[in-house]
Amino acid sequence: MDRMSALKDKLKADLSVSMKARDEVRVRTIRMALAAINVEEVAGKEARELSDDEVVKVLTREAKKRREASEAFAGAGRVEQAQAELDEQAVLDAYLPAQLSDEELARLVDEAIAESGAEGPRAMGQVMKVLNPKVAGRAEGGRVAQAVRARLSA
């Protein structure tokens, strides 16, 4: 348990830099991200160190929470809170892998369908099993499922 993930090290270093720069949004967001990582590390039967892939999953989940909260605030007419959530999401996005474009996602979906030999909407599970490891952290699950569903029903 002595080797931390490089991404977690980077978050801690960036927290220090942000504190010195008095960048309140970055400080608040990075602290929240580190807290979420720590919670994940102590969840379960015994404490463990997260790998970079697991840290990316935690950060992806936190970014999704910010996006959903922003939409909820905007829908309620609370523009300042919505913008604050978007600002936090932007900080988190800087630590996440680049998101797949629609074209890249469509190409990966086609490859997964060919690889699994799936046909029709009922074969969605087979395709997702092949596709998920290839898009992990680079596309939101709902977006991937929508692309697969559209392709299989076409």
Can you describe what's shown?
- The chain has 154 residues and is mainly alpha-helical.
- It has 2 domains: 6-93, Orthogonal Bundle (Hypothetical Protein Yqey, Chain: A, domain1), CATH 1.10.1510.10; 102-153, Orthogonal Bundle (Arc Repressor Mutant, subunit A).
- It has 7 helices and no strands.
- The protein has helices spanning 6-20, 24-42, 52-75, 79-93, 102-116, 124-135, 141-153.
- The mean pLDDT is 87.
Q: Secondary-structure map with pairings?
A:
Elements: H1 6-20, H2 24-42, H3 52-75, H4 79-93, H5 102-116, H6 124-135, H7 141-153
Helix pairs in contact: 1-2, 2-3, 2-4, 3-4, 5-6, 5-7, 6-7
The CATH superfamily of the largest domain is identified as Uncharacterised protein YqeY/AIM41, N-terminal domain
Helix/strand/pairing category: mainly alpha
Q: What would the CATH topology of the largest domain be?
A: Hypothetical Protein Yqey, Chain: A, domain1
Radius of gyration: 18 Å
Low-confidence stretches: none
- By CATH reckoning, the class of the largest domain would read Mainly Alpha
